[in-house]
Amino acid sequence: MNPLLRWFHSLGSPPTFYRFATRWIPWTGFAALVLGAIGLYFGLFRAPADYLQGESFRIIYLHVPSAWMSLFIYVLMAIYGAIALIWRIKLCEILMMAAAPIGAMFTAVTLITGMLWGKPTWGTYWEWDARMTSELVLLFLYFGVLGLANAYDDLRQGARAAAVLALVGVVNVPIIHFSVQWWNTLHQGESVQIIGKSTIHASMLWPLLLVAAASKFYFLFALLQRARTLLLEQERGKSWARELALGAR
Amino acid sequence: MSDFSATSSLLFRDLTLAWHRRSDVLQPLAFAVLVVLLFAITLGGDRARLSAMAAPIIWVTVLLANFLSFDQFFREDAADGTLDQWLSSAVHMSALCFGKALAHWLVYGLSLLLATPVLAMLLSLDVSLLPVLLVSIAMGTFGATQIGLVASALTARLRRGGILLALIVLPLFLPLLIFGSGAVDAVQAGLSARSALLLLAAQTTLLTTLAPLAAAASLRIGSDQPP
Question: How far apart are CA A85 and CA B113, in angstroms?
């Protein structure tokens, strides 16, 4: 067997994944910390202020990476869910369940930072803007997945029900997004334009990309951490988990 | 037993059951009238204001009343073991789920559709808007029933659905609501409702094709039957 394929297959086994996660948690956490610190320092202190929005634009260094992550994690969660349902890989159920609260957290951060930015810039905390509305719906889609998973007594059943819901949600995310845009253009002629990506200056852009990379690493860090805990909880009857718990004592 | 005959006998069974409990079917309608009453009272009974807001109020009311009926979808079938019988039979579960949704719409969706003119009258909706409202409600409730099918299948074996069902279902209602009330809005503004109605139809078609499959997969989760 191809060594890469073999490595991938063996990673599906809980004890191997546990060791893998334990090895990588410090590194991903470290990378997130370093990249985030550099990116935020240059973004918050060194990048020039925006000529139109002044200092308040600096919130994009939290807002935009979180917004990217919020959608990315939802899609990833649905992919894990599909793998869990189709190939019945137990580990993917766990990764899906571990990803959901992190995604909800990023969505909440996106909404809160967006509201804080909206007050000085638009003069209101909340505007029924197409993007804000679909982000809010995304938060409720996350809540639905989390709520459904927690409603089941059996961890695995809950995870699989949540996987179906995540798949239903991921089909609906583009529909919701475009329908909200359609609704928005129908109802109000003027819509707030958010600065296009290409119009941002390089000195403002690269700290943003650093923070975006940091958020990816943070996600990996939190994902592995949560998956490890969930794995121990689910496999508590197995001998490897017992040995591990006894060894730690 | 073929999928078709199984589905049609399920449809017949569900319709017969609904006929024997006519008062249960009337409850969502009573709920809809009550919500409209609450709106009319809060808005001060001002006919002009009510008339301007009638279409969105009716849309939300109908969807909420439809949502209340979702609790009936699988609960009894799951409780008395019928669901497990279906799952262990050779009939495709997705076909049965489609029959289930069709029966549910014929009972609850259709009765809400028939009640819509009454709600429109209570809110003094412009009569020229009634045809587009009825068409959009007919399609919208059908799509909403499909969403309810999946959500009820996911929560069928849970002891309580309630708020969780709302959390799952209501965000997914959003596109139906947008195009449904958008169609009425367009006519009100003197535009054509064509694009909104076509998009609503597209969405309902997509939901009707995919929802029975998703519901069948969801119902298997709680059972011990292999896929």
Answer: 37
What local confidence, expressed as pLDDT, does residue B75 receive? 85
Quote the number of domains for chain B: 1
Domain that residue B202 falls in: 3-220
Q: List all residues 6 or more positions away from B198 whose beta carbon is below 8 Å from its beta carbon.
A: none
- Report which secondary-structure segment, H or E, holds A68: helix A60-86
The pLDDT score that the predictor gives to residue A197 is: 47
Nearest residue in A to B214, CA atom: A164
Query: What number is the ipTM of this complex?
Result: 0.88
**Other C-beta atoms lying within 10 Å of the C-beta of residue A54:** 11
In a domain, B196, yes or no: yes
Interface of B with A in 124-163 (CB under 8 A): 150, 154-155, 158
Contact A141 B171 (CB under 8 A): yes
Is the residue at B227 inside a domain? no
Contact B202/A at CB under 8 A: no
Q: Which of B159, B178, B209 to mutate to test the interface with A (most CBs of A within 10 A)?
A: B178
* pLDDT 10s digits, A60-78: 888 889 999 999 999 999 9
The confidence band for B35, taking pLDDT boundaries of 50, 70 and 90, is very high
Instruction: Assess if residue B226 is contained within a domain.
Output: no
